[in-house]
Write a structure and sequence with these properties.
The radius of gyration is 18 Å and the shape is globular. It is an alpha+beta fold. The strands form four sheets. Strands 6, 7, 8, 9, 10 and 12 form a six-stranded mixed beta sheet that branches. A two-stranded antiparallel sheet has the order 1-4. Strands 2-3 form a two-stranded antiparallel ribbon. The protein has one domain (5-249). It starts with 20 loop residues before the first strand and ends in a 12-residue tail after the last helix. The protein contains five helices and twelve strands. The longest helix has 29 residues, at 221-249.
C-alpha cells in the first residue's frame, strides 16, 4: 500500500498537524516474532507479498508510544494466555477488540486519505479509550488452532475482513488465534468452531477475572484461515449493509464520508 503524502505532516491516528512523525511497524514486532514471519513474506492488501518488517506506517511519536504501551504490550501477553489455555478476562477481551480496530482503522485511513475516520472518534481515541456503550452489543469470537501446518511455512498473520463502511467488524488469524469482533446480532453467521464472548456492563465487578476460555476449533492454521476468510466475506457484507443503512437515516450532522461505528 502506498502511504499518501498527507500523512507526512498529519498524524493518521490523532489528526495532529506537524507533530514529530515516527515510523511504526504496521505489524508489531512481537507478532512478527510469534508468527516467525520475519523470515518470509505475507500477503497484504493486494496479491503482492511483502516482508512484514518492511511495512511501516507514519504516526506521531505520542501515538506510536501510547499504542505500544497501552495496546501492543498487554495484547502480546494476552496472546500468550490464549495460546496456553489460560483464558482471558473482560478487560483483555476489550483490549483485543481495540487492537483489531487499530489495524483495521489504520489501513482504512491510509486507503481513504480524503475522508475522516469516524464522526465520533479519531482512531487514537477509539483504540485507547475504554469501549463506550457499544460494548453491550458487541461479541468477540475466538477459535484456537491446534497446530501450525508445517507446509504453511510460517504462522498466519493477517486480516480477513473486507468491510468498507463498518468500523466494527474485523476478522483475522494471528498465530494460533482466529478472532473476530462483530455486532452481537450477527452471531448466527459465525462458524461453529468459534467460542463467543459477550461483553459485560461497564461496572461489572469482575472485569479482570479470567472467564473466557476459547476452545480449539481448528486442527491447523490452513483450516482456520480458510474458514475465517469464507465466513468473513459474508459478515463483512452484512456489517456494511447495517452501516450504510444507519448512515442513510442520519441527517446533516453526518457527512457520509467516514466509517460508521
Ligand atoms: Zn498521533
Amino acid at each position: 500500500m502506498v502511504i499518501p503524502k498527507k500523512f507526512k505532516k498529519i498524524c493518521a491516528a490523532c489528526g495532529d498537524v506537524n507533530p514529530k512523525i515516527n515510523k511504526e511497524h504496521f505489524w508489531p514486532e512481537w507478532l512478527i516474532e510469534r508468527t516467525v514471519t520475519h523470515r518470509t513474506s505475507i500477503r497484504f492488501g493486494s496479491k503482492k507479498r511483502i516482508n512484514p518488517r518492511a511495512f511501516t506506517v507514519p504516526l506521531c511519536i505520542k501515538c506510536n508510544e501510547d499504542f505500544g504501551r497501552e495496546l501492543e504490550g498487554p495484547v502480546s501477553r494476552t496472546f500468550t494466555d490464549l495460546e496456553t489455555g489460560c483464558g482471558i478476562s473482560d478487560i483483555e477481551a476489550e483490549l483485543l477488540v481495540r487492537w483489531l480496530w487499530k489495524f483495521e482503522g489504520l489501513y482504512w485511513i491510509f486507503a481513504h486519505p480524503e475522508d475522516i475516520y469516524t464522526e465520533r472518534y479519531t482512531l487514537r481515541k477509539r483504540v485507547l479509550q475504554p469501549l463506550d456503550d457499544i460494548r453491550t452489543i458487541l461479541t468477540l469470537a475466538i477459535s484456537l488452532v491446534e497446530v501450525i501446518n508445517p507446509n504453511f511455512g510460517d504462522a498466519p498473520m493477517g486480516i480477513d475482513s473486507w468491510n468498507e463502511y463498518s468500523a466494527v467488524f474485523v476478522a483475522g488469524v494471528f498465530s494460533r488465534v482466529a478472532i473476530m469482533v462483530l455486532f452481537r446480532q450477527f452471531e448466527p453467521y459465525v462458524p461453529p468452531q468459534f467460542s463467543l464472548y459477550r461483553f459485560s456492563e461497564h461496572n461489572a465487578p469482575d472485569r479482570d477475572a479470567k472467564l473466557f476460555y476459547p476452545t480449539i476449533g481448528f486442527r491447523d492454521c490452513v483450516e482456520a484461515v480458510n474458514v475465517t476468510k469464507n465466513s468473513a466475506l459474508y459478515l463483512s457484507h452484512i456489517h456494511d449493509l447495517k452501516a450504510r443503512d444507519r448512515t442513510a437515516k442520519l441527517t446533516s450532522e453526518y457527512s457520509g464520508s467516514g466509517l460508521e461505528i
